[in-house]
Design a protein that fits this description.
5-stranded antiparallel sheet; Rossmann fold; 369 residues; 8 helices; binds adenosine-5'-triphosphate; alpha+beta; 2 domains; 35% strand
Length: 369
């Protein structure tokens, strides 16, 4: 049992009907959310949807306009930031400019009265985590943006707060370093048993690190789930589109039995599996399917429940996979992705070829909004 599936599990962080207004503007609206101890939880959503505001309320830099916030069962109302067992790393990580990297990392530990030998050991461990052992004696202005971000990360992890709140912690790192640091953060979290709540724009990063993700839109959470749930069973076009690439095919609903419906669309009929609640006959609905779940071939696929004919419009070779955009008769472009398992593909599909796309009704999901 994962804690979020266990009705008896006690949440570590609990937002209960929290609203935050700035003047007449509502940044967070009647939001409820439980996060459990040792969870790696990510907030994902477009700029301005309220992610940072949510974190700031948890850290104590903002108070909710309405609603209650609890940490480990204790109400947080009126508790100042420094009295919360929370450490927040901001997007604009302010390092002390006159201090060395090592002193910046050691600062909080020193304040807490940690003895020097232990402090030095902790600093060394943190420097290793962020791969800055060689830079311990430098000042922040002698570092690159990515290196400064790693110092800030090391500083926020050093104190091993029970709850670590990170706002875009890896945003300034290049792709390779970012990927490495993601795995190291996960290892650290496991090892130390910390609870992480992080904000990111990067859906791949959220998928890689998180136990669960909440997708936000305009101050509300539109879906919460594990990375696989969010990817495989998005509950709306908005979520489907926010996480990864997706094809959305529209049509009018006719029932088909066995948990399936048929969508009558501009390019023919598509049969799709219904996950929660079938849309009514005659309604408009959408079938969402990921590019890698679509087969592409030169001949009409025999026995396929769903097949669409079209013309190859764009091809992008990405190394691990090739993306092929196919234009259907209605003008809709459908994206198919093939995994490049072998080094050379003989006679690969080319531009302007007539092709057939096929997919299983259960490989995608019918959406009502
Ligand atoms: P980003 O990814 O760009 O950081 P976000 O999802 O973290 O965005 P927030 O910083 O939480 O967004 O802001 C949510 C909304 O609240 C924005 O429209 C922002 O302009 C507004 N907002 C945030 N803080 C204040 C404030 N102190 N006064 C007025 N409006 C604010």
């Amino acid at each position: 049992f994962a804690p979020w599936e266990d009705p008896a599990a006690k949440p570590y962080i609990s937002f209960q009907n929290v609203t935050k207004r700035f003047g007449t503007f509502t940044a967070v609206e009647n939001l409820s959310l439980n996060v459990y101890e040792r969870e790696f939880f990510s907030l994902l959503g477009p700029s301005g949807c309220g992610k940072t505001t949510l974190l700031r309320m948890l850290a104590g830099f903002e108070e909710p306009t309405e609603g209650e916030l609890y940490l480990d069962g204790q109400p947080l109302k009126g508790v100042p930031p420094h009295k919360r067992p929370v450490n927040m790393m901001f997007q604009s990580y302010a390092l002390f400019p006159h201090m060395t990297v090592a002193d910046n990392i050691a600062f909080g530990l020193k304040q807490d009265g940690m003895a020097k030998p232990e402090r030095d050991e902790r600093v060394a461990q943190m420097l290793k985590l962020v791969k800055l052992e060689q830079f311990a004696g430098r000042k922040p202005h002698q570092l690159s943006g990515g290196q400064r971000q790693r110092v800030a990360l090391a500083r926020s992890v050093a104190k091993r707060p029970k709850l670590l709140i990170l706002d875009e912690p890896l945003g300034a790192l290049d792709k390779k370093l970012r990927e490495e640091t993601q795995f190291e953060l996960m290892d650290l979290q496991q090892e130390l048993g910390l609870t992480f709540m992080i904000v990111t724009h990067d859906q791949e990063e959220a998928m890689t690190m998180s136990d669960r993700i909440a997708v936000m839109d305009k101050g509300v959470i539109v879906q919460t789930g594990t990375p696989a749930e969010i990817y495989e069973a998005p509950n709306s076009r908005y979520v489907a589109d926010f996480i990864g690439s997706v094809n959305i095919l529209e049509g009018k609903v006719t029932p088909a039995g066995e948990g399936r419906i048929v969508l009558d669309g501009p390019d023919g009929r598509i049969t799709g599996a219904v996950r929660d609640g079938a849309p009514a006959t005659g309604e408009t609905a959408w079938f969402a399917i990921r590019p890698e779940k679509i087969e592409i071939g030169r001949t009409p696929p025999e026995g396929a429940v769903n097949r669409l004919e079209g013309e190859v419009w764009d091809i992008a070779y990405l190394g691990d996979m090739t993306i092929i955009n196919v234009k259907l008769a209605s003008g809709t472009v459908v994206q198919a992705a093939t995994l490049n398992r072998f080094r050379l593909v003989e006679d690969p599909i080319g531009y302007e070829e007539r092709v057939w796309l096929s997919f299983n009704p259960d490989s995608g999901v019918v959406l009502r909004s």
